[in-house]
Design goal:
Helix content: 10-25%
Number of domains: 2
Low-confidence stretches: none
CATH topology of the largest domain: Protocatechuate 3,4-Dioxygenase, subunit A
Mean pLDDT: 95
CATH architecture of the largest domain: Sandwich
Bound molecules: benzoic acid, fe (iii) ion
Length: 287
């Protein structure tokens, strides 16, 4: 019989799985077992700590619903989601950032120049730019799919009980023949990730806050190009240096500029904005 001790157990567990030689599954599973065991030995884990971890995961499962995925939130606050985003950003393409829990893939179609804010309180913001490929060529027909919180830091989808339309403050627009997109909206405010569950307890235990820097979400797609999921942040705004889910990247911070009194725009807008920002998206080829 094989001698199992605190060192040989790692290989014994790996060998117990009869996974396909050379497969990605084998690679992922064996790496996970190795790191889990190394960590356990390194910290000399007690029974109490081991049970604490398992109960924490149990609580994450218990509070999760189809609308609330506590494990994704856990991944977010541990920087796991951000790390996966970084590893999957293609060289030359816009950096990826959090999808978050509020995306709807059946958002309404928006005309270029439309106003997403529809009279909401707050600063009216023009967002515009060009969708390009990594060589700088515009990508006419690219789809810019956006969603965001309002001027109080709330997503309409969170307020359906008080009569808000879940499709407000979101939409898909098609870049014009020059690859340009442009629309007005309300400047979003920061908001907190849900902190009334086990992940909130973890944040409190670590003396961390739950605030996200104000942001706009995007998924940008174009035929033959790899889609990007990303976020746009604003220079010198609160939590830009300590976003609770590590979503901010330097390259994703846009400059907010006031709109001058008689300033004219090269494109037709439904609403005259108070402020503007420009952000170009760069997509890399598929594959
Ligand atoms: C968001 O950006 O919408 C978000 C991201 C992570 C957790 C909660 C919300
Ligand atoms: Fe968000």
């Amino acid at each position: 019989m094989r001698q199992i001790n605190q060192f040989t157990i790692t290989d014994a567990v790996k060998d117990s799985f009869k996974t396909e030689e050379g497969s990605r599954f084998k690679f992922l599973l064996e790496g996970f077992i190795t790191h889990l065991h190394d960590y356990t030995r390194e910290v000399n884990m007690t029974h109490q700590e081991w049970m604490g971890i398992l109960n924490f995961l149990y609580d994450c499962g218990k509070i999760s619903t189809p609308e609330r995925h506590e494990f994704i939130l856990l991944s977010d606050v541990l920087g796991f989601s951000a790390l996966v985003d970084m590893l999957n950003t293609r060289g030359g393409a816009t950096e990826g950032s959090n999808l978050g829990p509020f995306y709807l893939d059946d958002a309404p179609i928006l005309e270029l120049g439309a106003d997403l804010a529809r009279g909401r309180d707050g600063t009216s913001l023009l967002v515009h730019g060009i969708v390009r490929d990594s060589l700088g060529n515009p990508l006419p027909g690219a789809i810019v799919d956006t969603w965001q919180a309002d001027g109080t830091g709330t997503y309409p989808i969170q307020e359906q009980a008080s009569g808000q339309d879940k499709f407000d403050l979101r939409g898909k627009m098609t870049a014009n023949e020059k690859g340009e997109y442009y629309y007005t909206t309300v400047l979003p405010k920061p908001y907190t990730v849900p902190y009334d569950g086990p992940v909130g307890d973890l944040l409190r235990a670590g003396n961390r806050h739950a605030w996200r820097a104000a942001h706009l979400h995007y998924i940008v797609r174009a035929p033959g190009m790899r889609a990007i999921t990303t976020e746009l942040f604003f220079e010198n705004t609160e939590y830009i240096d300590n976003d609770a889910v590590f979503g901010v990247r330097k390259s994703l911070i846009a400059k907010l500029e006031p709109v001058k009194k008689n300033e004219e725009f090269a494109f037709a807008l439904e609403t005259r904005p108070d402020a503007k920002c420009r952000f170009d998206f760069v997509l890399a080829p598929e594959g």
